[in-house]
Amino acid sequence: MHEDIHLAMLELDARVLDVPWLWKHTYHFRHPEDINFILSKDGQLFAKSQRVAQSQEFLGQGLFSQLDSPKHAAMRQTLNPAFRMEYLKQLDKFFVSSATQLADILQEAAAAGPAAASSSSSSSSSSGGRALDFQRMFRLMTLDSIGLTSMQHDFAALSTWQQQQQQQQQGAADGSEPTVLIERTLQHLSKAFVWQSLCLPVPRAWLPGYSDYIAACNRLDSIVAQILMQRRATSADTSSSSSSSSSSSSSSSSGGSSSSSGSSRSSRDIVGYLLLAQQQQGPDVISDAAIGDEVKTMMFAGSDTSSFTLAMLAHYLALHPAAADRAAAEVAALLQDTGRGRDVSQLRAEDAAQLPFVTACVNETLRLSPAGPAITRTACQDVEVAGYPVRKGQDIVANMYAMQRHPEIWPQPDAWLPQRWLPEGVEQGLAPKAKNAFLPFSTGARSCIGRSYAMLQMVLTVAVLLGRGIRFGVDGGSRELRLVKGLSMYAEDGVWLVPTVV
Ligand code: HEM
């Protein structure tokens, strides 16, 4: 595996790395004590870096990109209830149904064998099956879920992809890559962000793909405006007609529709809380633009991170088939013991806590391949960290990637060993030798608000796929796994694997 992030660091000492970039050198802290110190002082000694401001052009002032601490804290308070476990538990059926839809697609691809595939998201593999880009497939799935669970909107990303794929196989399409508008738009922006965040001393219009980037910014704004317009119309419908809970289902520029299944739930999702807060506090405190910014933020933060993690997990399971079988056996035993036979569609939120090995596989993937590998902060005043002087205004990095592979903390640091998260691994001496050295969702005031959402979705998704007999085979093709850090970490050329069914 090619990991630029891993190779680009010079070691200063066991705690600190130095990363040269153009004329600047940046300290990267990798010891848990230092990282926990830095992140716990968010909003006091340190602030989110100005580099994040580059993302404001398309995310606006949403939770992730908001640099003003009091405004951030107020919005976080507004949104916290939508991420409480008691509410998230009600979302399990959406996670399970999106994963089931993906399982159908994978099963079909596995059965299709070495079909000639013309698009860049599927190709025939030398091992005989049809290889798919799992990062893309999971991205479509997570987009569908974030739409249904947080904004009552059905992006229909997986089914759009499926329809286009079928049309191609029947020769009814021109053979070009299936396009799901919302996914393409987010991808354009993520890729362009890599260039923007390099802060190169050239006019931005000279950067590669700049005009595509501006077009994608505008497209995203109009998709979000349409989602909010539909949502408001639905809320007005439901409040004026208490007898009917179904929503109208008109098509939108995102390729999806307002979700009738979503509207039958209460309005206590992310957009619901935002609209309620706007009613209570007034549009001068929570403007329409602010609501749109949070919607865009959730689309990015809630899809790219989880889809990358799930794709990397599939990659590790392809390399460790015995672990895939063990996780599948755990799911089968749980369903059997609770009288549900083999019906994975009945998996529910409470089951996640009964799947320790599946959870360990997710955790070990988050350790080796954190979607947020390096968190940049700017010092608000002169300060010393681990004996190194940091001046006011200087950027420093909490390097999660390096901490979670620190050789003095993690036995066999580069090996994917899910058992290290279980009592058996502790007995084998695989547990970390320091506290708080595993922070894939960060910590402190700017930590991930979607942590429980993501964990629930990932555990249930893996359980559904493995429970349906899906396994992952290494793609015999020539594609290299190349990891790049943009807004979050992603595989530049995808994560190509061959689905099989046992
Ligand atoms: C595997 C999945 C995920 C990982 C590894 C992850 C990781 C992270 C990390 C490391 C941060 C801190 C970034 C920083 O301080 O610069 C963060 C922030 C954030 N995440 Fe996640 N995340 C995941 C999934 C999600 C999901 C599913 C959502 C929403 C549904 C979400 C929403 C957010 C938001 C809004 C922030 C900004 C929080 C703030 O500044 O208050 N994330 N995430």
UniProtKB/TrEMBL annotation:
Residues 239-265 have a biased composition (Low complexity). Keywords: Heme, Iron, Metal-binding, Monooxygenase, Oxidoreductase. Transmembrane segments: none annotated. Its cofactor is heme. Heme binds at C448. Residues 235-265 are annotated as: Disordered. The keyword Nucleotide-binding does not apply. One of its GO terms (molecular function) is oxidoreductase activity, acting on paired donors, with incorporation or reduction of molecular oxygen. Gene3D superfamilies: Cytochrome P450. It holds the Pfam family p450. Belongs to the cytochrome P450 family. This is Cytochrome P450. It comes from Tetradesmus obliquus.
